[in-house]
Amino acid sequence: MIAIVDYGAGNLRSISRALASQGAEAVISGDPRTVGSADAVILPGVGNAGHAMDTLGRLGLIDPLRAVVRRGSPMVGVCLGMQLLFGHQEEGGGQGLGFLPGRVRRLAGPVKVPHMGWNRARMVRDGQFGEAGDERDYYFVHSYVVEPDDPADVLAETTYGEAFPSIVGRDNVVGFQFHPEKSGAAGLALLAVIAAGGTGFGRAAASHPILAPLGTGAGASSAS
């Protein structure tokens, strides 16, 4: 069973319908026990990262999410959910979940923000989502981008004023900066990998950052 985390931020039913179309059993839940015992977890999200972290903490969901990552079950972040997989958030100096080492910052360059609409993602590494050089179009809505500490965690890149990671992954943790549930057949193909119980999204780390204490003081970041 795949748990779609309900913390008041995201297109939950759209994701649920997309997973169902790929034969997956999914439940929308904000219950810590349900989330913590799921076979896989999808963390969606739009809006403010600081508010999102505060809400996850208030609902008692942070420890269950950490437990999912520790035991090796798939943890999937979508849009803001992908950004929450990382640590430092630029605006407000707050902290995300810290499952992947790196930071989140605002999009740079002479472009309109938020980045909204269809854009192309190019795979930069072979993996479950394609081979290096493969290109697919996905639907984006975001103002912030991630900067992984380790370039090996970047699985695909997109250009909008600058090149930025649009798919990241390490071990059982993966993030999509775009919305796969809004991206037609290309997005459904990614969700099919999740529905099939895939893991090993990126290289295996010698030690996982999730084992370190979670950062404190999530600030009022509007990352999305």
Automatic annotation (TrEMBL):
Transmembrane segments: none annotated. It catalyses: 5-[(5-phospho-1-deoxy-D-ribulos-1-ylimino)methylamino]-1-(5-phospho-beta-D-ribosyl)imidazole-4-carboxamide + L-glutamine = D-erythro-1-(imidazol-4-yl)glycerol 3-phosphate + 5-amino-1-(5-phospho-beta-D-ribosyl)imidazole-4-carboxamide + L-glutamate + H(+); L-glutamine + H2O = L-glutamate + NH4(+). Signal peptide: none annotated. Coiled coil: none annotated. IGPS catalyzes the conversion of PRFAR and glutamine to IGP, AICAR and glutamate. The HisH subunit catalyzes the hydrolysis of glutamine to glutamate and ammonia as part of the synthesis of IGP and AICAR. The resulting ammonia molecule is channeled to the active site of HisF. NCBIfam families: IMP_synth_hisH (TIGR01855). This is Imidazole glycerol phosphate synthase subunit HisH. It comes from uncultured Thermomicrobiales bacterium. The gene is hisH.
